[in-house]
User: Fold this.
Amino acid sequence: MILVTGGAGYIGSHTNKALHNAGYDTVVVDNLCKGYETFAKWGNFEDYDFGSKDLREVFEKYDIDGVLHFAAFSSVAESVELPQKYFKNNYKNTLNLLQIMREFGVDKFILSSTAAVYGNPEKVPITEDQELKPINPYGHSKWITEKALEREAQKGDFNYVSLRYFNAAGCDFDCEIGELHDPETHLIPLVLDAAIGKRDSISIFGTDYNTPDGTCIRDYIHVNDLASAHIAAYEYLCEKNESNIFNLGNGQGYSVREIIDMCKKVTGRDFKVDIADRREGDPDILIADASKIEKELGWKPKYDLECIVSSAWKWHQKVNDI
Ligand code: UFG
Assistant:
């Protein structure tokens, strides 16, 4: 049985569905502070906070072999406003989970880490061995969690894989689940809100970045590609007695303006675009070198930007009932 924390959230639910389709038994643990119970319909569901001591009850009830840990706060902007909230939930509460895993002898762990651990990288595409210099509390909270895992693995009888996601986007092709944050802060769903008429315009946060068109460049990866990478990483942990860290991205960067253009193309709709100030904590460019996971686990992403935006648009139309 695999424990999936945050399995009622965006990336966790897509991975839980993929695990189920691959024949794994799962139990989702989610306190529904961000997730939706309807997103956790595959396998078992338990309403617990992963930072609570009561979480032991889940380990007593199910025979857990490994943990996929998605539950976390993930807004860069909010983390700048509320750093303690991020260190407490993303780092301190993960220590609680690790302690309970140790008590029950559960030795396989996959962390949802992030490209935000690199900060403003010295060179792109970014390889896993680049120096980690997070520039926002969110990135810092994941960096320190990776350090805790490294030390835990050094103690023995415990292995982990840290997956550093670049920009997760897109939705389930069956439209059973999708991206639904409240409030929404991510670029693609906000642009689609403008396309669907839920907002009057989309604002570009800064046009003076060190990029060809002045807007930030990111590497967008389909959520189903993230899901399949988790399965590959879990199989690796089952086969080998070692830990590892991998980037998950497409290896291609798109600027904010290019994303807006792709959304206009896919939706066939036009909308107003405003220029706003920079958002604090945003690095200029984040593009993954994801060759390590391809070489070591044979995983590579399948879906390109157009597919990402098309799947997001289909879901967006469904949830907005249009
Ligand atoms: N942006 C806008 N206007 C908006 C919203 C976003 O211009 O209305 C810009 C942002 O400034 C940024 C880019 O679009 O330059 C992407 O922003 P998102 O909020 O969609 O994503 P982030 O790159 O800030 O962060 C995401 C995840 C993080 C993760 C990071 C890693 O939310 O958890 O990708 O690359 F760390």
